[in-house]
Amino acid sequence: MTDPVFFRPSGPLDLAEVARLVGGRLASGDPAATVNRVAPLDQAGPGDLTFFENPRYLAQFKATTATACIAAEKHAAAAPAGTAVIVAAQPYRAIALVMQRLFPDATRLKGPWGDDGVSPAAHVHPTARLEDGVTVEPGAVIGAGAEIGAGTRISANAVIGAGVRFGRDGFVGPTASVTHALVGNRVTIHAGVRIGQDGFGFAMGAGGHLKVPQIGRVVIQDDVEIGANTTIDRGSNRDTVIGEGTKIDNGVQIGHNVTIGRHCVLVAQTGISGSTELGDYVALGGQAGIAGHLKIGAGAQISGASSVKDDVPAGERWVGVPAQPIRGWMREQTALKRLAAATKGERES
């Protein structure tokens, strides 16, 4: 069996160009030396570029055989002989810039079929409108009256529902479905995502649960990325809104009428109940649960596996079950440890 390479470098970069690209400076090494691969510290060798940011990996940094390493100023002196150092204020962001230059195909996703254009095996309704440069792969369905902007790729077996508006230069992964939605430009939707299905709305009663019609939409603004198997319900009587630049991990659930601000980060298995509002730049850790009808203020951070049942003021960090401000939680943990130690001492005496 051959060993496939899915992302090939676009060509070598010399170290002077790397330094310019990341807004840094070459602290040591030959500016004409070149790199054409990116590798982690413990696997990098000649021809590779790596980066060092987390002090936990200092030993690997000191032992690396990479041609060059991007590091902060305070760590530059720890680099091994023979490894050039490019100093940058934020090494992780710097390596991301280099990878975008070296591997442009990794940010311009293609579906599994790989060919451009509208496949004869796709199902495009006669009333759908596709701008020039749209790709629709085999098995994909484009519904009646849907509109898709130039440069967008619809992968195999994906579904774009009737009347959906989808912007330019986007990507819809295999088997994903988008219905009842208005989607902006440069939006990436990974495999298995479900957007626009019914919200979970029932008027409960002793005689049975009466379904509440879900008549809203999902509005997704520009530059949003949505991870595999995430679900975003359409609104019940208003829109569910995802703000521009927001990044959503795999397996996230967003309920009806939720409003998410700009540039938020939602990590895997997060759940947000209906009608909750997140301000701009909110970060939710993995498996965080947010109850319905809450307001999470701009810049707030919720730790992973926390359960939020109250409004969170802007800029605060909350943790725990139920979640609370981190300072109060830490005091409680310290008190519990002291109590446990004292109880243990009493039992042993």
From TrEMBL:
**One Pfam family from the UniProt entry?**
LpxD
A Gene Ontology cellular-component term: membrane
Q: Which residues form the UDP-3-O-[3-hydroxymyristoyl] glucosamine N-acyltransferase non-repeat region domain?
A: 34-100
What chemistry does it catalyse, as a reaction equation? a UDP-3-O-[(3R)-3-hydroxyacyl]-alpha-D-glucosamine + a (3R)-hydroxyacyl-[ACP] = a UDP-2-N,3-O-bis[(3R)-3-hydroxyacyl]-alpha-D-glucosamine + holo-[ACP] + H(+)
Please name the GO terms that the record assigns under molecular function.
N-acyltransferase activity; UDP-3-O-[(3R)-3-hydroxyacyl]-glucosamine N-acyltransferase activity
Q: Does the keyword Transmembrane helix apply?
A: no
User: What EC number(s) is this enzyme filed under?
Assistant: 2.3.1.191
Q: Name one GO biological process term.
A: lipid A biosynthetic process
EC class (word): transferase
* Catalytic residues in the record: H256
Write the record's keywords in alphabetical order, separated by commas.
Acyltransferase, Lipid A biosynthesis, Lipid biosynthesis, Lipid metabolism, Repeat, Transferase
Superkingdom to which the source organism belongs: Bacteria
What pathway is this protein a component of? Answer: Bacterial outer membrane biogenesis; LPS lipid A biosynthesis
The UniProt entry, under PANTHER family, shows: UDP-3-O-ACYLGLUCOSAMINE N-ACYLTRANSFERASE, UDP-3-O-ACYLGLUCOSAMINE N-ACYLTRANSFERASE 1, MITOCHONDRIAL-RELATED
HAMAP family for this protein: LpxD (MF_00523)
What's the subunit arrangement here?
Answer: Homotrimer.
Which purpose does this protein serve, as stated in its record? Catalyzes the N-acylation of UDP-3-O-acylglucosamine using 3-hydroxyacyl-ACP as the acyl donor. Is involved in the biosynthesis of lipid A, a phosphorylated glycolipid that anchors the lipopolysaccharide to the outer membrane of the cell.
- Similarity-based family: Belongs to the transferase hexapeptide repeat family. LpxD subfamily.
Q: What is this protein called?
A: UDP-3-O-acylglucosamine N-acyltransferase
